[in-house]
Amino acid sequence: MCAWHLYCYSFRRSVFSKSLRITTPIISIITNQRPFHSIKNDVFPLTILPAISVDKRKMTTTAIMDGTTSTTSSTPVTRKTVSLADYDAYGFDLDHTLAKYKLVEFFDMVYSCLTNFLVNKKGYDAKLKTDLQKYKDFICKGLFLDIEKGNILKLADDGSILKAVHGTKELTTSQLKSEYGDDLKWEHAETVKKLLRNQKVSWRFFENYFDTPGLVAMAQIIDILDSKADTDKADASDYSLAWQDVLDGLIEMYTFTNYAEDKGEFFPIFKKDPSKYVEACSSDIKKWLKSLKQDNKVVFLLTSSYVDFADKTLEAALGPDWATYFDINIFYARKPSYFSDTASHHILEDGKDVGPADTLKKNGFYSRGNHRDLMKFISEQTGKENPQVVYFGDNICADCYPAKMFAGWGTVLLLEEMDAEGYTCSDGTVPQHEDEGCDGQPASKKSKLPHFEHSSLVTPEEREYLTSQFWDTFLYHEDTIRPKRMNTFWGSVISEYSCITVPSLEYLAGVPLSHQFESFNAVSGNTQGFHPGRPASLLP
Question: Which range (32-36, 226-230, 235-239, 519-523) has the least confidence?
C-alpha cells in the first residue's frame, strides 16, 4: 500500500520455533486523489482470470470470469480454488507487502511527527505529545471518524454501529441510538461500501498504519475541545476544523516532494536510518521472488510511493540489487486511480521524470500510468493474448478492490492482523500441522483442539498494537445473540475482493507454487480464503 492514499512463510519448522516476531504500506495522501470515473463494463471489460481448479465431474471448464459466469456456459459458477502457478504475471505493492515495517518504532515515529506539527504549527496543547503506548489499545485499523459528531465508529457488515467513542470516551447504546436511530445504522455505510474510498467532508476511514496514529491524535483533540466548550460537546465546526489540522499534518509528513527537500519531519527521520523502521526480507522470500520469473513469466513492482522513498525502502527490504527481482518498476501509481485512469506512464531516469513513455520496456522505471498499458507490456513479454495477473497488496481499497474490479486481476491480501491474533494451520501447507482439518476442525477423532500460531515475524510488542481489547478484532466483534461469524464491515469487503488472504509473503514463500488454495466465495462473510487457516477470532 502507500503516502499517495494519504496524499490524494516460509512457515517451516524453524519459523515457529523462534521467539515471537509479523509483516505489514507507503503512503497515498488525500489531497489530489481522483475519484473513479463512471465506468461501464463495455469500456473496461473484465478479463478472464487464471484457470482455477474445478471438479470436472461437475464443471466443463476451468476458466471463469471474475465474479460470475463461465466462458463456455451461462451458468454462474463460484471460484473454489486458485493456484499461483496458473498466473502469467505477479505484481507486488511495496509498503506492508514487500516491505514489512517495525510497527512499534514506526508508530511512535509517525505519532511524534504528527503531534509535533499539531503543537508547534497549529498551537494545540502540548499534552498531545504523550507516549503513544498509553493509547495502544485504542489503535485499530478500519475505524470510521464521523467528523461532524466527533465520534469514532466500528461498523458491522450491514453498516450498523458495533461500538463507538466520542473522542476517547465510550458511548452507551442509548447515546448511540439518540444520535443514529434505534437501528444504529450509519447513514454513510452503503456509500463507503460502494466506493471504497475516502471523502474529506463529513467522514473518514482509517485503512492503514500510515494514518492510524492520526486517529489517536484526533480523539484526544476532541476531548480537549469538549473540555473547553460551554456545553457538553464542542460545535461540529470545531471538530471539522480540528480534523483539517490533523489532515494538514499528515499531508506535510507524506507529501512526496518533501523527501528530496528534507521537509515534513517524517522523511528526514526515515532516510537517516531506514533499517530502524523496515525489516529485511528473508532469503526465502528472495528465492521465491526469483522463482516467479521462471517459464517466461513477468514479475512487476507497482507502488504509489515515489521513486526516491521507494528506492530507500526497497534497499532496506531486499538489498541494493532490489531491481533485479522485477521485470518492470512502476512508482507513484496513484492507486486506485491507476486502474481507472488513462494517464500515460512517465519514464524515470536517475529518479527524474523525463516525460511520457510511448511503450513500456523491460527493466524500465516509470511513474504514473494505467493498467491497460501495463497489460500490453505483459502480453508482449509472455506471448499471451490474455495474460493472467495476480496482485499482492495490503490495502483492500487501493490494491485488491480496483485490481479485481477494473483490471480483472486475481488478488492476494496480506493481513498482518492474522499473525498478531494467531491462526490455525489447517490447509495442509505447514509442516507438522497436517492433522488439523479445514478451518481448524479436527481431521480425525484423534485430533486435538486447534493450535494457534504466531510466526516469528511478529513481536509481543507489535501484537499489542495490532490486537485491541477495547475494539475487539478487525474481523470480528463479539455477538452474544447470533452464531459466531466474520461480522465486521471490512471482513465482508475482504471476502468479496480478495481471492485469498495470508499473514505475509513469508508464508507464501514456503508453499509450492502449484498448491491449490481454497478461495473466498460469493457469500458475504465467508472465511474459506484465509490461509494457512482462519484467524483465531473467527474460530468457535
Answer: 32-36
Q: For the residues of 236-247, what is the DSSP string, one character each?
A: HHHHHHHHHHHH
Q: What percentage of the chain reaches a pLDDT higher than 70?
A: 81
Could you tell me where the beta strands, DSSP code E, fall in 314-463? 328-331, 345-349, 352-356, 365-368, 389-393, 410-414
In single-letter form, the type of residue at position 262 comes to D
Within 361-503, residue ranges assigned H as helices are: 371-382, 401-407, 416-421, 460-466, 489-497
CB 427 within 8 A of CB 518: yes
User: Model confidence over 244-259: pLDDT tens digits?
Assistant: 999 999 999 999 999 9
Task: Compute, in degrees rounded to 10, the torsion defined by CA atoms 400, 403, 408, 409.
Answer: -70
C-alpha cell at 245: 489540522
For 176-188, give the DSSP string: HHHHH-TT-B-TT
3-class DSSP assignment, residue 141: coil
**Which one, of 294, 288, 178, 167, lies nearest residue 221 by Cα?**
167
Q: Do the beta carbons of residue 525 and residue 492 sit within 8 Å?
A: yes
Phi, psi of 135 (to 5 degrees): -115, 20
Sign of CA dihedral 531, 535, 538, 540: positive
Distance (Å, rounded) from C-alpha 205 to C-alpha 197?
Answer: 8
**Residue 480 confidence (pLDDT):** 73
Contacts of 360 by beta carbon, 8 Å cutoff, 6+ apart? 328, 345, 366, 373, 374, 376, 377
Q: How many CB atoms lie within 10 A of CB 45?
A: 10
Query: 299 is written with which cell numbers?
Result: 514479475
Residue 389: strand pairing partners? 89
Q: Give the pLDDT score at 12.
A: 33
For residues 343 and 370, the answer to whether their CB atoms sit within 8 Å is yes
Q: Catalytic annotation on 226?
A: no
Nine-digit cell string for 335? 492507486
Out of 93, 146, 419, 439, the active site residue is 93
Query: Structure pTM?
Result: 0.85
Domain ranges of the chain: 103-271
For the question of residue 95 being annotated catalytic, the response is yes
* pLDDT reported for residue 432: 61
The residue from 66, 88, 95, 341 that is catalytic is 95
Distance CA 453, CA 342 (A): 44
Cα 331 to chain centroid distance, Å, stands at 17
Quote the DSSP letter at residue 47: P
Q: 442 — alpha (psi -120 to 50), left (phi > 0) or beta?
A: beta
Q: How far apart are CA 387 and CA 48, in angstroms?
A: 9
Indicate the length of the chain as a whole number.
Answer: 540
N-term to C-term CA, the chain:
32
The pLDDT of residue 10: 31
Strand partners, 392: 92, 412
**Nearest in space to 245 (alpha carbons), one of 207, 210, 192, 200:** 200
